[in-house]
Amino acid sequence: MDFDVHYAFGKLLGHGQFGYTYVATDRGNGDRVAVKRIEKAKMVLPIAVEDVKREVKILEALKGHENIVHFYNAFKMKNYVYIVMELCEGGELLDRILAKKDSRYTEKDAAIVVRQMLKVAAECHLHGLVHRDMKPENFLFKSNKDDSPLKATDFGLSDFIKPGKRFRDIVGSAYYVAPEVLKRKSGPESDVWSIGVITYILLCGRRPFWDKTEDGIFKEVLKNKPDFKKKPWPSISTSAKDFVLKLLVKEPRARLTAAQALLC
User: Virtual CA dihedral for 196, 197, 199, 202, nearest 10 degrees?
Assistant: First the structure.
């Protein structure tokens, strides 16, 4: 199948480690899509090829979920690999947070966002998958509307895991990384921790674990508890605080699962 026969390129949306993401138009029906164009020349190591294959396999496995960016097709051409996905034009969750008054959400609005993230985590875990990089930059809104659905994107670090097994590598983003990831024995629970961090940020506009250096952040994550005394926490409900605390339990086995958190 020839990519150029089916799609016409539009503007550049962004770029990552191996390639660029563009808006494209389906020549058949006029629909606008997002296309990740990966340069084969940059995939010199076998591991890079495996990463791309795995991402496509993951997108196919999660196809059809309302809060996961929809996968349409993948094309392997002479110089590039193209991954065709749903176009989300509402921007990143991070930008929405920053645009809010005091960079924070009301409890009611935060609950709507958090529920959608937990549904993504629960769906991944049901398929034996761990996202491994849940952060506000990896959640996009479908449109600019206030009630736009949220869509998880970027499964580049995601991987399948067998029950009882643990990942030994440290991946993810410093502010959102779970303690067990830093201890090199992580599993699906680490996604729930990351959602806990995002929930804390949504409610108060600050990060629960912060330092000037990455090492400093890691020490905070391993040793310290998030602050619930400073403003606006005194005005936030006890149930919201308890919920955040249940997601930010340092011991992964004592943490709520994504499915359990959805019942709260």
Answer: 180
HSE-CB at 207 with a 13 A cutoff on CA atoms is: 16
Q: Where are the beta strands (DSSP E) in 148-200?
A: 150-152, 159-160
| Tokens of residue 165, six digits | 């097994």
Q: In tens digits, what is the pLDDT along the chain, a chain of 264 residues? A: 789 999 999 999 988 767 899 999 999 999 999 999 998 888 878 888 888 899 999 999 999 999 999 999 999 999 999 999 999 999 999 999 999 989 999 999 999 999 999 999 999 999 999 999 999 999 999 999 999 999 999 898 999 999 999 999 999 999 999 999 999 999 999 999 999 999 999 999 999 999 999 999 999 999 999 999 999 999 999 999 999 999 999 999 999 999 999 998
b/e sequence 95-122, b meaning 16+ C-beta within 10 Å: ebbeeeeeebbeeeebbebbebbbbbbb
Largest CA distance in the chain: 59
The pTM (predicted TM-score) of the whole model is 0.94
Residues 80 and 135 sit within 8 Å (Cβ to Cβ): no
Domains, the chain, with CATH or none? 3-86 (3.30.200.20), 93-261 (1.10.510.10)
Residues taking part in catalysis: 133
Residue 36, marked binder = yes
How remote is the C-alpha of 261 from its chain's centroid?
17
